[in-house]
Design brief:
This protein is mainly alpha-helical. The protein contains 13 helices and two strands.
Length: 327
Amino acid sequence: MEAILAGLTDILVPSTLGLVVAGTIVGVFVGALPGLSSSMAVALLLPFTIYLEPIPAIAMLSALYCAGTFGGSITAILINAPGAPPAAATAFDGFPMAQKGQAGRALGMAAVASVIGGLFSLIVLILAAPALARIAYQFGPPEYFALTLFGLSMLASISGKSATKNLIGGAFGVLIATVGVDLTTGVERFTFGVPELYEGISFIPVLIGLFAIAELLKQAAEVGKPVTAIGLSAIRLPSLQDFKRVWATIARSCGIGTFIGILPAEGSTVAAMIGYNEAKRWSKNKDNFGKGEIEGVAGPEAANNAATGGPWCRRWPWASPAPRPRR
């Protein structure tokens, strides 16, 4: 408790609060730009924090990262082009809601779910970080293999009604991920002598190609047809009825996102996809997913922001990895 009070005392300094506000604003703008991610924004802003004290610098970068994770949902909902990789799942139902004239409602739900997910991960970080970090350090090849199979199996139901098509799409994604130099053996795979492919295909160009370019071609095919404008007067906070409908989804996604965030090599994107899949699996309105279901916005947004606190657990000072037994 003394450490928490000391941290609050350091954060509530006006200059530190000003940096947090600045980091939040910049993070939202960067996250909303397709092609830029919150991780990239943190890397770009890092040189500007060299001359700051450690606590203000960490507070600013943390606010930037969390705000960037939410900012990607803005363009995902409005133009079907996720600004950040974790917002890809939000576009599945966020954009259809915007087409129905419910863009403000979708953005409001995304904001509230993001805040709840971030606060939940913060509480878990404060209370249970050492224990959770020790569990994460016990993950080895068998556990990662099982986690990979679990993720691939979810593709059967994450989008559309055809499980076969979903699995084919997932297999094609795995094929794209094999492009580049293997980090273990150093063997070049599917590079065809092109140096730009040695490091693999970046997730950002794939994301833009799947969503932004696809939406651009779709709009180009409708030239001459009546244009349907998306109305957005203001962001509307969720009503009490909306909360009753999504509270279980948000609670479930908070737990999923925190657990996924703690695992090494995982992150907000995986958490968002799993959060969306579980929201659909447990929902009473499964047929509405992909057509503008508000649970399809709350689930991934709560999960991807709940995953932001997980990486800090792995860096907990006294959570050093225990020696693994040989298998």
